[in-house]
Amino acid sequence: MNEKDRLKAEARAEVLKALAHPTRIYIVDVISAEGPQCVCELTERIGADTSTVSRHLALLKGAGVLTDRKEGTTVYYSLACDCISDFMTGLENVLRARRRRSEEMYDAAVSQ
Predict the structure, then answer these.
(1) Fold of 3-80
(2) Neighbouring-strand partners of residue 38
């Protein structure tokens, strides 16, 4: 692997690491479906304390998944690009394909 390929892979891994937590996936799903959210809205929905939700948001923002804008004293978080929703749809397709393969293997084993 050359230097350019290594740097590209590291940058991609950083984004994937930021997404690699159920709460952060949920945050992305909520923002994708409902639009910009503030910490207080997400804290209520997630059922965690504000500092925990803020850390999740900071990780997602640092990885470039989210952007923020301030309105008065409230900060609203949005997806950095719509392609994040497409990426999540791709993940769902992978999960469905994995389940189908698993079911096919089970069916083949049972029918013998």
Answers:
(1) Arc Repressor Mutant, subunit A (1.10.10)
(2) 76
